[in-house]
Amino acid sequence: MIITTGDMTSDALVERAKQLAKHIEVPFVERRKQSLPRMMKRLGDDQFIVLTDDEVRFTQVGKTDLFYHPSMAYLRIKRHLSGIEDVMIRAAKVQAGDTILDCTAGLGSDALVFAVAAGASGRVIACESELAMYALVREGLQTYTTEMEVVNEAMRRIEMIHSNHLDLLKSLPERSVDVVYFDPMFRKPVRTSAAIDPLRNVANHEALHEEVIEEAKRVARRSIVLKELKYSGEFKRLGFEETVQTGSKLAYGVIAIDNDK
């Protein structure tokens, strides 16, 4: 993977791109008005993170084109702030000041909703195993600007970690977060979507392992929450007995933590 900029650059944008490249330990290459296919042929790499003044984009030449944006999270947050209940927040029973660990960050949409619900006194840690997705979302959270300052502030507060979620869970102390959350990529897509299909090309498709849930039980203070298809066998396989239904094809499984044990 290569970090570069758009055709129109500034010293500040180039420095930002160089810092991202240094952080994720991949090369920075000056664009010099070259097309990405031409850069691919010259450099032998088809994956690029492209920074511009307006957006952060991941491109795998000829296969995937994905840019950071809050997506449906923005609408969910507006509804939440107007007093309309968000089912994910209800399932996780998130309160102001909570610490939430999102083990499958993806584009960071759920992490952003959590960050708004937990407020400035809360903490949201978003774990992403795939380097391209991690770099895209980490940079996007720090630079994307919406018309709502509460959303902008929430994006800046999210702590992105590049790690396998099992490794991260094993590294954390017992009862160190309030909620551990999972939204793994569905093995069967709910529907064809112009927004989701490019994500599927770079996301981690592995099913959750029972060991992951056991580690989550050790780390969580209140609950473990799993987003899945309503009639998925994953809830039963992984020990989620309580489910909170949504109005769509999805549901949230919940494992409540008994802190007296």
Report on the structure:
InterPro entries: 16SrRNA_methylTrfase_J, SAM-dependent_MTases_sf. This is SAM-dependent methyltransferase. One of its GO terms (molecular function) is rRNA (guanine-N2-)-methyltransferase activity. Pfam families: SAM_MT. It is built from eleven helices and eleven strands. With 261 residues, it is an alpha/beta fold. The chain folds into two domains: 2-67, S-adenosyl-L-methionine-dependent methyltransferases (3-Layer(aba) Sandwich); 72-256, Vaccinia Virus protein VP39 (Rossmann fold, 3-Layer(aba) Sandwich), CATH 3.40.50.150. The strands form two sheets. The protein has a seven-stranded mixed beta sheet, sandwiched between helices. A four-stranded mixed beta sheet has the order 1-2-3-4. The chain is globular, with a radius of gyration of 19 Å.
Question: What is the secondary structure topology, with strand pairs?
Answer:
Blueprint: E1 2-5, H1 11-24, H2 36-43, E2 47-51, E3 56-60, E4 64-67, H3 72-81, H4 87-92, E5 99-102, H5 109-118, E6 123-128, H6 131-143, H7 149-157, E7 159-162, H8 165-171, E8 177-182, H9 197-200, H10 210-219, E9 220-229, H11 234-238, E10 242-245, E11 250-256
Parallel strand pairs: 1-2, 5-6, 5-8, 6-7, 8-9
Antiparallel strand pairs: 2-3, 3-4, 9-11, 10-11
Protein name: SAM-dependent methyltransferase
GO molecular function: rRNA (guanine-N2-)-methyltransferase activity
Pfam families: SAM_MT
